[in-house]
Amino acid sequence: MSMLPPIYRGDPFIYTGTYKPQGNVAPITSDVHLTASVCSRHGTTPLTLIVNPDQVNNVGQFTISCSDTQHWHEQAVLTLSIQIGGVVNPPARATFRVLEALCPTSNCR
């Protein structure tokens, strides 16, 4: 399982990744269905996943995001679920820490 950089609770979560089945970059075609969620002590939160529409120049690129991280807790797990042609593949997972913000807004960081 990979480790992502930490985020501050309440800040937006943004992760840009590249689809690499069996370690090789591949385009995300219409038969590939990706979903993402984060699991923490608070529960599971579905995330927004957007595939880069230009899969010719940005092969395999996608962005996962969430604007509401206020209820995420210390240790979190990002899960990327993958279906190809309707067949469920093992999910990809990465952990990251959610740090307590030292001030109430991101303006002071």
Taking Cα atoms only, what radius of gyration do you get, to the nearest Å? Answer: 15 Å
Distance between the termini: 29 Å
Give the number of DSSP strands.
Answer: 8
Question: What quaternary form is this?
Answer: single chain
Q: Quick one: overall form?
A: elongated
Strand/helix succession: EEEEEEEE
What is the SS-derived class?
Answer: mainly beta
Largest sheet: 8 strands, mixed
Low-confidence stretches: none
* Overall pLDDT level: 90
User: Hey, roughly how much beta strand do the residues contain?
Assistant: over 45%
Helix content: under 10%
Q: If helices are DSSP runs of H or I spanning 4 or more residues, what is the number of helices?
A: 0
